[in-house]
UniProtKB/TrEMBL annotation:
GO biological process: phospholipid catabolic process
InterPro entries tied to this protein: Alkaline_phosphatase_core_sf, Phosphoesterase
Highest rank taxon of the organism: Eukaryota
Gene3D superfamilies: Alkaline Phosphatase, subunit A
Leader sequence residues: 1-18
Stated name of the protein: Non-specific phospholipase C6
Length: 284
């Protein structure tokens, strides 16, 4: 079964410059030095789960300096049976919490249909023990590549989900600023069904080269389409044939120094290098 999980985004520029102390750069100085922008999208992990254990800078708003606990029963905070976050997230998450919009409502609001007055902390009514895994976090050693990139470049410690729901609507937000009303991974995403202008179209219109490399096992029940294939323009312009390529091609192009100006990478879905349970976090 294909799990449907919200996208977490790691947007990684290949040339983010750190100015030596005392030097002032204007945007023009560093912009001209950026040759390639590479965006890698992964499935949802919260900031606290993924980066909450990073320790290279005490200013990171993670979990190291908090004792973060929720009561087991959202309706009864006095109940002393707490679930607390700890540095014990598993490389392969043993559970995949329901992340439909209504499932997330239940986790956040303790009801499938929240009204404004019922805001609660992360909870899921049923079967809390396995779900408690979701508030645990990784140690820097478990996410070494990410830790190294964060330490040497830039880390944002406020992460937001455009749609508190599954993958494709969130990926549509990333690539076009809207899901066009879609709240589920419905069939429109499989058939070039979205009509809005995407970043891919905009790049082409501005003569900026781009590729959508992908390792998806595209097809109903098999995985997600690469994001460029959500959009009608991609098919009508012919970009479906020229600008979408397998992930292996990314490795070859990177090695040969022939990456386009803008690279957008979709992992497979959902059990290998996508971060979606049961993908091991170390492969992402
Ligand atoms: C995202 O991941 C966090 C941490 O595992 C979890 O609490 C949350 O329910 C997930 N949200 C969605 C929409 O999948
Ligand atoms: C949670 O607490 C409420 C209010 O005390 C109670 O009615 C409910 O049965 C409890 N749920 C569980 C799963 O213990
Ligand atoms: C998630 O929960 C909602 C609300 O109960 C339900 O309609 C949906 O079928 C569930 N999805 C999965 C994948 O279990
Ligand atoms: C893109 O290239 C075409 C063909 O060279 C040119 O006509 C067009 O003006 C260019 N567009 C932009 C936005 O630079
Ligand atoms: C994608 O491009 C190929 C080659 O141009 C074309 O034959 C095919 O029909 C296109 N696919 C879709 C779904 O439009
Ligand atoms: C693509 O994903 C599959 C699993 O779905 C994996 O076996 C394969 O090695 C991946 N390819 C690359 C180039 O990462």
């Amino acid at each position: 079964m294909v799990g449907l999980k919200i996208a977490a985004v790691a947007a990684l520029s290949s040339a983010v410059l750190a100015a030596p102390q005392g030097t002032t750069y204007s945007p023009g100085d560093w912009k001209s030095k950026i040759k390639n922008v590479v965006v890698l999208v992964e499935e949802n992990r919260s900031f606290d789960t993924f980066a909450g254990g990073l320790s290279y800078n005490p200013a990171i708003d993670g979990l190291l300096h908090h004792n973060y606990c929720n009561s087991m029963n959202a309706s009864d905070p006095a109940q002393m049976d707490d679930v607390c976050a700890g540095p014990r997230a598993n490389d392969v998450a043993p559970d995949d919490p329901n992340h439909s919009i209504s499932g997330v409502n239940m986790q956040i609001f303790s009801t499938y249909h929240p009204d404004e007055m019922q805001v609660d902390e992360f909870h899921e009514a049923e079967n809390m023990h396995p779900r408690a895994e979701a508030i645990n976090y990784y140690t820097p050693d478990q996410v070494r590549v990410f830790n190294t990139m964060a330490e040497n470049f830039v880390l944002f410690d406020r992460w937001f989900a455009s749609v508190p729901g599954p993958t494709n609507p969130n990926r549509a937000y990333i690539t076009s600023g809207t899901s066009h009303g879609h709240g589920q991974n419905d069939n429109a995403f499989n058939v070039y069904g979205l009509s809005q202008k995407s970043i891919f179209q905009q790049l082409s219109e501005n003569n900026i080269t781009w590729m959508n490399y992908q390792n998806s096992t595209t097809g109903p029940g098999l995985g997600f389409n690469p994001d460029a294939a959500f959009y009608s323009w991609t098919a009508t312009s012919g970009a479906n044939a020229t600008n979408i390529a397998p992930l292996d091609q990314f490795y070859a192009d990177a090695k040969a120094g022939t990456l386009p100006q803008f690279t957008y990478i979709n992992p497979e879905c959902c059990s290998y290098q996508s971060f979606h349970p049961p993908s091991p976090i170390t492969l992402g």
